[in-house]
């Protein structure tokens, strides 16, 4: 049974290890018959919440960025994968 897979990559570097991992996972998921969508967060604009609470009244955020689109993709995904860099502990 095919699943809708969403892969979110958050590395800021082009051709990063996180991107390579995301691409390898996507290839495997597609080979297994799944519908895969890859999103690189460095290409998206997501602002911080302003705390205005307008969304509680209108059910819509006043900030016009890519967060609404991303939230919808996450909501519709059946499998969610995060590929993100990890800083070493020093």
Automatic annotation (TrEMBL):
The answer to whether UniProt assigns keyword Hydrolase to this entry is no
Task: Outline the extent of the NADPH-dependent FMN reductase-like domain.
Answer: 4-86
Q: Does the keyword Flavoprotein apply?
A: yes
Q: Kindly state which keywords UniProt assigns to this record, in alphabetical order.
A: Flavoprotein, FMN
Which InterPro entries does the entry link to? Flavoprotein-like_sf (IPR029039), FMN_Rdtase-like_dom (IPR005025), ISF_SsuE-like (IPR051796)
Q: Name one GO molecular function term.
A: oxidoreductase activity
What's the name of the protein?
FMN-dependent NADH-azoreductase
